[in-house]
Each structure stands twice: as C-alpha cells, then as structure tokens.
Specification:
Order of helices and strands: EHEHEHEEHEEHEHEHHHHHHH
Largest sheet: 9 strands, mixed
Number of strands: 9
CATH architecture of the largest domain: Alpha-Beta Complex
Number of domains: 2
Distance between the termini: 44 Å
Oligomer: single chain
Number of helices: 13
Strand content: 15-25%
CATH topology of the largest domain: Spore Coat Polysaccharide Biosynthesis Protein SpsA, Chain A
Radius of gyration: 20 Å
CATH class of the largest domain: Alpha Beta
Shape: globular
Length: about 325
C-alpha cells in the first residue's frame, strides 16, 4: 500500500453530537490522497459506533481505541506516531473542514518549502452551526513569530505540518498546541497562516478552550516561560515541570487575577451571565472594579442582541 500524502489526526471523546458532520467534511475533500486516523479516547457515548460505521465504508480510515482515557495530548501523539503521510493535518471532532481545505494547504506547503506549518482562518460557529464571526489570522511569518512570543495566534484545528517526527510534549495537558508552536520556533521552523477560513470552528461549552480556560491560560504562560528560557539558555526546565500544580487548582475557590479574568471571559462567551456576575464581584473585592471586572459585569445585564454585537467585537 502506497503512503498517503496527508495523515489527518483526530482525537474523539464523547463527540457523537457533531461527529458525523466532521467526518463527512473530511471524506468529502477535493484532495483524496489521505488517511484519517481517529483515536477514540474511551468515549462513553455513541462515538465509537459512528466511527466504526465510517471505518467499514472507507479504507482510508484507521481507528485506535485507547485502553483508558488519556486526554487530548497523548491521544494526538498516538495518532502522529503511526501516521504515514508526508503532511499531518489536525481537526477536532466538532469542527468542519471546507471542501478544499486539504488541497489549499497541501499546495501551499508544496510551494512554500521553507514553511513547516500552516494554519488558516476560521469561521466560528455555534452549537447549531450558525456563523458567529469570521477570524482572519496574521499571515506574515515574522508577524506570527512576534505574536507567538506573546500569545497563541494559530488555530489548532486548522494546522497542517510536515511529518518530520515532531510530537506534542505530554505534560502540556492544555495549551499543547501553543507549546508545540514555540518548540518549532525555537528550533528554527517557520510558521504561516492561510487567510481563507478553511475550518468552521465550533464554539461549544464542552470545548477545552472555554470550559477549562483558566487552566489553559496557565499552561500557555508556562509554555511561553519555557520558550523564553530556550531563547536565553538553549534549553528549558520542562523536565522538572509538575503539571499537577496547575491541574489541581480549585477554580471556583481561586482569587488569582489571571484565573478570575480567564473564567469571566469564558463564562461571558458561554452566556453564563450569572457566573459572570459572581466572578466579577470576587474580582472587584480583590482587584477593584476596573479593567476586566467592570466591562463584563455591566454587559452581563444587557440583552442578548446587544451582547452578540459586543461579542463580535471582542472575539472576532
């Protein structure tokens, strides 16, 4: 069997709600020379039945069932390590690829030999598939490098990169993509973005980027700290990093400024306005009624139409 040009790697945990739509968007690609590696991370819903149905009908699909729930980072590495493609593409189980996504990214990387990884723009959609906003990313390599030194500006489900043995660092339970990009940058690899929205990125209460936002942000800070260490010293302190110090934080009891700001933003994004007001009051007690607290507190009392307009400004 010849090796495919692209290996698509997807981890699934209880993703039955949108899984048909996601897999269908992959199998319907204009670019056909790919394998789809689906790592089922001990789903407890109907995900496995959906996956097995597709596996029987398309020889390009390979399914791996984890013996226990390992989480996203380890599951992705399992898929990457068995991938045979020249390129690896990522997608999440609740997102949707545009029909020409693989073709556009493949041709881009074939022509731009100096680029190691390419992301793309996104259309952000809600649970029902309605477009909430369109994100047009930074595309210039130097600007991306500058932005990544401050915060993540590459959408994880949109990336395609060269299959050269790179994997995610497994202590990064969250923000594994940001750490991955910074590892590439410190190793001299170039990252770019294609401006077109090649993925419909679903904003869901179950998404890690919102349901675990504070911890994700703390892991991102650690990734950036390690990046700065590598730039300065040629190595970082990942070996002595204990992720439990972040994972075991009691979010609801925390008064840490970053944790509160992250959770206020996430709750606002998810329309949990009662929680927004509760967190804002805590923020106000400890840090005053300015900056993060005041804006979201006032907006939490606004009507849904007003909030949707504001959200387009804040999160586009």
């Amino acid at each position: 069997m010849s090796e495919p040009e692209i290996s698509v790697v997807m981890s699934v945990y209880n993703g039955e709600k949108h899984l048909d739509e996601c897999i269908g968007s992959i199998l319907g690609q204009s670019f056909r020379d790919f394998e789809l590696i689906i790592v089922n991370d001990c789903s407890m819903d109907g995900s496995l039945k959906i996956i097995e149905r597709y596996e029987k009908s398309d020889h390009r699909i390979k399914v791996i069932n984890n013996p226990e729930n390992l989480g996203l980072t380890k599951s992705l590495n399992i898929g990457i390590k068995i991938s045979r493609g020249k390129y690896i593409a990522r997608i999440d189980a609740d997102d949707i690829c545009s029909p020409d996504r693989f073709e556009i990214q493949y041709q881009f990387l074939e022509k731009q030999k100096h680029i190691f990884l390419a992301g793309s723009g996104t259309d952000k959609i809600d649970e029902s598939g309605n477009t909430v906003s369109r994100h047009r990313p930074i595309v210039e390599e130097k600007e991306i490098e500058k932005e990544l030194s401050l915060h993540n500006c590459v959408s994880h489900p949109t990336i395609m990169f060269r299959n050269e043995g790179f994997t995610y660092r497994e202590k990064f339970v969250y923000a594994q993509d940001y750490d991955f990009y910074l590892i590439l940058l410190s190793g001299g690899k170039k990252i770019s973005n294609i401006p077109e929205p090649l993925v419909k990125y679903r904003i869901s209460p179950c998404a890690i980027s919102w349901s675990k936002k504070a911890k994700q942000d703390l892991f991102a800070l650690k990734a950036n700290e390690f990046y700065q260490q590598r730039l300065k010293n040629g190595s970082d302190q990942y070996g002595s990093f204990n992720p439990g110090e972040i994972l075991h934080i009691e979010i609801e009891e925390s008064t840490d400024r970053l944790v509160l700001k992250s959770e206020i933003e996430a709750s606002f994004k998810l329309n949990d306005f009662k929680r927004v007001r509760k967190l804002c009051r805590t923020y106000c007690i400890h840090y005053g009624f300015v900056n993060c607290g005041s804006c979201y507190y006032v907006l939490s009392f606004a009507g849904e139409r007003v909030i949707n307009k504001v959200r387009l400004i804040l999160f586009s």
